[in-house]
Every structure is written in C-alpha cells, then in structure tokens.
Amino acid sequence: MRGRLAGVGFGGDYNPEQWGPATHAEDIALMREANVSLVTLGIFAWARAEPTPGAYDFTWLDAHLDRLAEAGVAVCLATMTASPPPWLARLHPETLPELADGTRLYPGSRQHWCPSSPVFRRHAVRLVERLATRYADHPALALWHIGNEYGCHISRHCHCPVSTAAFRTWLRARYGTLQALNDAWSTAFWSQHYAAWDEIHTPRTAPSFRNPAQRADYERFSSDELLACYLAEKRVLARLTPHTPVTTNFVPIAKTLDLFAWAPHLDVIAYDSYPDPHDPDAAQRAAFSYDVMRGLKGGRPWLLLEQAPSAVNWRRHNGRKPPGRMRLDSWQAVAHGADAVLFFQWRQSRGGAEKFHSAMVPHAGPDTRIFREVRDLGAELAARPELLGSVPERADAALLLDWPAWWAVETDAHPSEIDYLKGALAYHRALYAASVACDVVPADGDLGAYRLLLVPHLYAVSRAAADRVTAYVRDGGTLVMSYFSGITDEHDRVYLGGYPGPFREVLGLTVEEFDPRPDGSWAEVIRLEGAESVRDFADGSPAVTRHAYGRGTAWYVGCDLGAEELRGLLDRVRRECGVRPVEAGLPEGVQVRARVTAAGERLRVRLDHRDGSVSVERDGPRGATG
Ligand code: GLA
Asked: Would the CB of 344 count as within 6 Å of ligand 1?
C-alpha cells in the first residue's frame, strides 16, 4: 500500500452509492481540494453490487474506481460483506442470528448474520471472488477491507442451532474427548456432567449463574468464528490478488475479539476511534487504544480507518468536536503510530440511521467550519511526507493485556465485580499522566524488552505464561501486578495452595482471603512471605507490597488506589527502575510522542490538550528523569 501513498493516508469512508452523478463530480473536486489520498469504498454496498442472488452489477463501481484513480486517490476496497442484502434472509432465514433468550434478529438494520452460517460464508466468498477477479489490477486498489468492525452489533454472539452445532464442533477440536471437557469445565459441580456432545449448548439464558468455563470458551469460540469468516475471505484475496495487503477495521477496544489472536492475519492493523468530546479522559483512553493497536504487531504503524470529524450520532448526547479538536485527535493518532487518518464518512448521509453523524462534507456543504478544518488538516499532513516509513519510538514500559483473562474475570459470582478494561486504563493513565510512553504486550510477548511491566487483573493465566512473568522479574525486570491476578488456570480452575498461586513466589506473599468493601472497593488479607508492605490497609495489614526477586523487583497492589495515589506509586516505581517521561517537565495536559523516520531522525509530536495546539518538531534531547 505504501507505494500508492506519498505520505500519511488521508480520507474517509466513501459511500457514493447514496448519491447521484452531480454529487460524484463534486466529490472528486472536493477530495482534490482537501488532499484526500485514500478512501474506503463500498463497505455497505452488497445490496447494490448483488441486487438479486447471483446477478452482479459492478458497472457503477468501475466508474468510481476509475474516477478515483484519475484523481490520484488510492482505494481501500471493501469486500462488502458486512451487511447482506435482504434477499439472503428471505431465501435463508437460518442465516439470521439468535440471542441467548431465543430472540431472532431481522434485517432492517445491519450486520444481521450468523457468524457460523455456511450459507452466509458461501455467499460472502462468492462475492469476494467476483470483486477480487475484477479489480485485482485496478490502479486505484491499494488495500482490501474485509467486512466491517467484526464483533460490533450481533455478529458476535449467536445462539441459533447452526451456532450451537458449530460450538460443539469447536469444543471437540479443543478437548478431543468429553472427559477432557468435563474436567476442564468442572462439571462435577451442579450436576452438569455431559454424557454426549449434543447435550452441550451455548451459554443461553439459564436459571442461575452459568458455568464460567463454558462462558469463557464461548467467548473464545465467538472470536474464532468471526476470525474464520474473515479468513474465508482473506484466502480468496490471497489467491487472486496476492500483492495487495488486507485488513479489517477493529471496533473501539472491547472484549469482543481476541485482537492478539487476530493480528497475525492482518497485513496491517486498522482501527476505528471515537473519543467522546465530553469525556475528560477521552485523550488518555484514545492513547491507550492506539498503544494497543501498535502492540498488535510488535510496534509497527497502523491505520486510523475511522474517526468522526465532529459529532457522532449514537451516544445519548452527541457533542461536537470544538474547533481544532479534530486536528488534535488526528495528530494524537499519528504520534501513537497511525499511518493513515481517515474518517467516517466522506459526505454526510441525507437519509438513514446515520444522517446526524458528522462527515468531512457536512449537510451544509463545503463552506463550513468542518470542511475547512478537514481541508487544512489534509494540507498539513500532505506537507509531512517524512512521516511515511517512520516508526513509533519504542517505550521502556509496557502493559500486559490478555483477552482470555478479560473474559474470565468478568464472569459472575466473584468476590466483587471487576471491570478489566477500567483496571487496565487506570494503570495506563498513571504513566500517561506522567508523560511516560507505554507499549502494550500480550502474555507471550517480548517482555524482556521492557524495564517496567504493568499487569492488571491477570485473573486467569496458564502456568507457562505465569512462568514467563516470573522469569522476567528474575532476569531484572520490574513488575507491578494488581489484585485478582493468578487466581485460575486457563480453564477457570483455581490454583490451590493460596492465592495468587503461580505468582506467590515472585511476589513474596500469599493472599488468604478477599474482603471487598460495601462500596465495591477491593480489599484482601495478605500474608507477607518475603515481601515488605509499602502501604497498609486501615487495620495495619499490608495492601501494597514490594519484593526483591532475582535481579528484579515485583510490586503487588492488593487494593484500589485512587488515580493520584496510583500515579504516586508508579512514579516511585519507575524512578527506581529508570523509566523516564518522553520529555521532562511537561505541564499537565501536554503529551509528547516521537516517531523515528527512515533517515533516523526523531520527530516529536507535541499535543497540548489544554488549548488544542499541536506542533511537530525534529529531534531534541531526551528529557531527564521527572
Ligand atoms: C462504526 C462503523 C461505521 C459507522 C460509524 C459511526 O465505526 O464502522 O460504519 O457506523 O461507526 O460512528
């Protein structure tokens, strides 16, 4: 794709099927004016491309691709399979998804398909074969965009008979024998022992708590089924257009998909980001999600495939982005590794459910604040060709994120409710507030590359993964682990002998009891076994501990710390292990992140979230410890 772009890609979702020829002509003129270099085309155009089964019409698409090529705009071409035409449900009602309580979801919105449906997959693959054959050599084609936001809306959790059968097949492949499944799911409990595979269901609406291991497996299965849909299309593209990279846009960080399991199958990571202009923590949340995107391919740049130029339409109150905010948001993404800045969408729809979602060209047309800001940003990015080929600077600190642990820790009947993402964000925020860069790594990532490793709520963990974390500390790393980590194995079976089983040695302690407070805050009873307490609960028992282990140090946080206290703790920890801010002395609300160009130059992007200003500077000395 890089060959088709002269710099950071700039543009948006282009849905010309909603408009007529006069608008199309104006689109091209305005794209030129705004320095648009990349558009995503045809995401919801299946019904237009195949209006009746097997009768394809691509002539309209030919014209758009030709026009875009002529205007020098590269195309990220959608495979169009995000939302099937209504005829699929008429001919094959079994492709409609079903909720846990048996409710069927019907056409009339979007993404109404069962991920396990062979019928859906067959029709999708047939369409992709046509598209790939027709456009493989089109000069506008830069990138393939499979589906859209897998896991968004229903296409994640389906409980229909087809999905139930697929779940059983998936379980057979995972466990081999019923005995192994019964063992892994602890079915001796509550008379759940299975004597035949077809006794097993997806975790549907049930009288009381559903089996937690079954639920966690169903999450894995659901992520895998969607991945199988993606891969069915990817195989076609790899066969017919092997030289064009393939991606799909990930939905704002959620527990839906195990992104570390998906990442190897994308040629480039793509992400949709919708920071809420009314949320004071939006910038940090965005920073976190961008750090995750970068982490999915070990630090490589990624594409911001969607953001809103101003308001969205799907929150209860959809505030606009004030002047300058869209530019600031865009540069933030670039600073954290984005190689493209795209929007949903190019032109604001006249009808349909998203007509009040902002777009690059608003209802009022180009003589508007939004279009002027879009045009200015396009010009500004075009004037920075050195960004292309640059890579985000590596951080000294990392946060370990793990989807299976996320799934398991949020099942019910636990000592207290834990919000895994909230925990991860809190630890990330404590570094962010100190202007410290943070990478995000999977449990099997390269931990040794970091001086400091943050591990929030790693509740379910395999022995092997726990050993890697232990070895990281033994070899000189500094670990900060938060409570309710190391409690169960990958099948949600508790490690016996005292919590947190596989981390007791490295942390130098045992947790004997959990004792969450009525306000929901966490507390527990910790017995020191080598660690020292650095902060006590009100009753004088240890709450936060420090343990020298091997050549490293392991900190344990057995309670909820407020933002200020957590920040103070992590400031202390990182001073001890030599993790510095990206730049010293930055005022609160100002962030700096750096990219290193192909020529080895350091580009520092300075984001001032107080007044919305941005500056990009070349090189500069690295700040002292702050
Ligand atoms: C998602 C979808 C888009 C659009 C936007 C609106 O990101 O991918 O099609 O609906 O949300 O914010």
From this structure: yes
- Strands of the sheet containing 270-272, edge to edge, are 246-247, 141-145, 74-78, 38-41, 9-14, 338-343, 302-306, 270-272, 249-250
Q: Rounded to whole angstroms, what are the CA distances from 30 to 23, 71, 209, 347, 372? A: 10, 11, 56, 10, 11
pLDDT per position as a tens digit, 588-623: 999 999 999 989 999 999 999 999 999 999 885 443
145 lines ligand 1 (CB under 6 A): no
Q: Provide the pLDDT for residue 3.
A: 62
To the nearest 10 degrees (0 to 180), the angle between helices 369-382 and 325-335 is 30
Q: Whose CA is nearest to atom 10 of ligand 1?
A: 354
Q: Which of 486, 485, 559 is nearest to 522 (CA)?
A: 559
Cβ contact 539:458 at 8 Å = no
Q: 500-542, pLDDT tens digit by residue?
A: 999 999 999 999 999 999 999 999 999 999 999 999 999 999 9
Q: What is the pLDDT of residue 2?
A: 53
Q: Is 549 in the pocket of ligand 1 (CB under 6 A)?
A: no
Domain ranges across the chain: 397-577, 590-621
Distance 163 CA to ligand 1 centre (A): 26
> What b/e sequence results for 221-259 when a residue is b if at least 16 CB atoms lie within 10 Å of its CB, and e otherwise?
bbbbbbbebbebbbebbeebbeebebbbbbbebbbbbbb
The single-letter DSSP state of residue 199 is: G
Residue of the nearest CA to atom 7 in ligand 1? 272
For ligand 1, the distance from its centroid to the CA atom of residue 329, given in whole angstroms, is: 17
- Ligand 1 atom at minimal distance to the Cα of residue 272: 7
The pLDDT, as a whole number, for residue 624 is 32
Among this protein's residues, is 373 annotated catalytic?
A: no
Q: Which of 306, 490, 524, 583 is catalytic?
A: 306
What tokens does 292 get? 């995750």
**Residues 59 and 66 sit within 8 Å (Cβ to Cβ):** no
Q: Is 148 in the pocket of ligand 1 (CB under 6 A)?
A: yes
pLDDT score recorded for residue 155: 60
CB 111 within 8 A of CB 151: no
Residue 444 has pLDDT above 90, yes or no: yes
Q: What are the pLDDT digits (tens) for 58-74?
A: 999 999 999 999 999 99
Residue 312 Cβ < 6 Å to ligand 1? yes
Residues paired with residue 547 on neighbouring β-strands, in sequence order:
554
The arrangement of secondary structure in 397-577, i.e. its CATH architecture, is 3-Layer(aba) Sandwich (3.40)
Active site residue 505: no
Q: Is the pLDDT of residue 1 over 80?
A: no
Give me ligand 1 centre to Cα 355, in Å.
12
Give the least confident one: 376-390, 432-446, 449-463, 607-621: 607-621
Spatial separation of the C-alpha atoms in residues 242 and 576, rounded to whole Å: 49
- Ligand 1 mean position, distance from CA 344 (Å): 6
* Phi, psi (rounded to 5 degrees) for 47: -65, -25
Closest C-alpha to ligand 1, atom 2: 149
Structure token digits, residue 411: 């099942």
357 CB less than 6 Å from ligand 1? Answer: yes
Residue-level pLDDT at 126: 98
